[in-house]
Amino acid sequence: MEFEFDIHKIFLEPISKLDSSLLPQRRPLVSSSEAQRQIVAVIDEIGKASAKAQRLPAPITSASRMQTNQHHLYILKDCTPKTAGRGVVIGFLKVGYKKLFVLDHSGSHIEAEPLCILDFYIHESLQRHGFGKELFAFMLRTEQVEPQHLAIDRPSEKFLSFLRKHYNLRSTIPQVNNFVVFEGFFRDRKAPGRKMPAKRAEGEIKPYSLSERDFLKHEEGLPWPFSQAQSSLNRASSLGSSPTRACPRHNPGEEDFVKSLRTFRPHSLQRAASGEQEDPSQRRRTR
Ligand SMILES: CC(=O)SCCNC(=O)CCNC(=O)[C@H](O)C(C)(C)COP(=O)(O)OP(=O)(O)OC[C@H]1O[C@@H](n2cnc3c(N)ncnc32)[C@H](O)[C@@H]1OP(=O)(O)O
């Protein structure tokens, strides 16, 4: 992706890590205000490209969302002499910690706060050249995390293939939310998860967990899963919640629906109990 300004003056490293300040560790070679303006333009553009590649109705990565969340954004630029001019952005990877209830092999809910892969994109013309692996490996080193300890927010087929090929991540542990976790998720973690009691007091239950992609639904009307309540509940519900997300709006009939969620036994849970595996790609949100 090319821009009307010089990428090499704002991103001095091959891979730049940004947080909510939107400023890379090495100070850009242009004024702070100019750097901020250019970096906002880059993030918004690559966010749009990623959404288009994933056929999402709107970007899940934008400068404004970066500023209001505790996410880390890794941006890879091209350093080869052929693009020595103003430089190009090859792709990006966005990660962040989220509080989730993750099902273990026995179907128990474990409260965990794993690093989650939230958005990942390499420009179409440069896919399958090893850039994704370079970016992903850099993130793993920087965040000091093992690939099997990650939770993935609705991976695409390409991403699942990527994880199989580079990290031998194949078998998933069936979940009832939209995050995919792999075998080994619970092994040798630095901070082991907390097992939740089978029955919890009323009011203590966090009824659902929103993935990055679910905020899109928020903007369209009732938040997911409440937006599903009027129609039939034909997909697995989610448990757990994201600390970085605003509280859902309360609507008439919402409490009844939450109660019904508490007694609802999702298909994935039934599958977990029977040992049957679910194809994670089937869990992707349809538009
Ligand atoms: C949580 C989320 O972010 S889900 C969304 C993930 N992003 C997308 O799906 C957007 C479109 N895809 C992409 O941007 C890229 O393909 C990525 C980010 C998934 C991978 O980056 P790449 O630079 O292509 O990966 P890299 O070259 O390091 O590894 C290649 C491997 O990735 C997988 N892969 C990459 N592109 C494809 C493709 N078009 N079809 C199938 N598998 C693919 C394959 O396993 C491939 O190995 P192979 O060529 O031997 O089959």
Q: Could you explain how this protein is built, in words?
A:
- This protein is α+β, with helices and mostly antiparallel strands and 287 residues long.
- The protein has helices spanning 7-10, 32-54, 63-68, 131-143, 157-167, 215-220, 226-229, 254-263, 267-274; strands spanning 15-18, 72-77, 89-97, 100-103, 109-112, 115-122, 151-153, 172-173, 179-182, 194-195.
- The relative contact order is 0.12.
- Mean pLDDT is 77; it is low at 198-208 and 220-287.
- Acetyl coenzyme *A is lined by residues 53-54, 117, 119-122, 127-133, 152-153, 155-156, 158-159, 161-162, 165.
Strands of the biggest beta sheet: in what spatial order? 1-2-3-6-7-9-8
SS strand fraction:
15-25%
- Ligand names: acetyl coenzyme *A
Poorly predicted parts: 198-208, 220-287
Please tally the helical runs, counting DSSP H or I stretches of 4 or more residues: 9
What sequence of helices (H) and strands (E) makes up the elements? Answer: HEHHEEEEEHEHEEEHHHH
Q: Taking Cα atoms only, what radius of gyration do you get, to the nearest Å?
A: 20 Å
Number of strands: 10
Q: What is the molecular shape?
A: globular
Structural class: alpha+beta
- Helix proportion range: 25-40%
Taking all residues together, what is the mean pLDDT? 77
> For the report, how would you describe the main beta sheet?
7 strands, mixed
For the termini, the CA-CA separation is 27 Å
